[in-house]
Amino acid sequence: MKLNLRVWRQQSADAPGAMVTYEVDGISKDMSFLEMLDTLNEDLTLRGEEPVAFDHDCREGICGACSLVINGDAHGPERTTTCQLHMRSFRDGDTIDVEPWRAAAFPVVKDLVVDRGAFDRIIGAGGYITAPTGSAPEAHATAVPKADADRAFEHAECIGCGACVAACPNGSAMLFTSAKVNHLNVLPQGAPERETRVLDMVAQMDAEGFGGCTLTGECATACPKGIPLPSITAMNREWLRATRASRR
Length: 248
Description:
Layout: E1 3-10, E2 17-24, H1 33-46, E3 69-70, E4 73-74, E5 95-99, E6 108-110, E7 113-114, H2 117-125, H3 146-156, H4 163-167, H5 174-185, H6 194-207, H7 218-222, H8 230-246
Parallel strand pairs: 1-5
Antiparallel strand pairs: 1-2, 3-4, 3-5, 6-7
């Protein structure tokens, strides 16, 4: 395959950026999108040019590092992570636009790399789970109904990639925050900090400068792990309950 790539190049957060066009040839349809970018960078290096900076780590769809907007879609045309997107999703001669996440709370570090430290600070605001010290408890010491366990695992699948923010027209982080709140709040182990957790995490999310949620649903559509939109309404209920309790 021969492709025309229009890639966002930006030297630093303070420098102006622009789309730069590159041509890559000899691309196999079995390559992942990141392997295609590796090929581009090999060509650039051989020509004495600076390679394109982009985030990646596990390349197995687990870590969420591969954050790219491809032809206007977070992670590209398939509902998966960029590292699991293969070039068979494109055609020979295609022009492909490659950009970083676009959100005020995700400042560009360089080229396609953005700083997603805001997510870490939201998680940090949630604090810890109270647990007694000493010997490990029996596996079945705390009974968890299957429905609650399923809900917890469903939300725990969130890998923090940020596609929900990139896809949201408001740049909201509600889906991410709700996943992190709900996967603990539905379990008995998370009950002691249930109220403070949701209040503190939502407050931190607002402080980071993410946009407001208007439930357009783009976040859930783009999420590679399928975190459902009702996760947001569940967190809103938790927040309202905790807010009322804090005023008593």
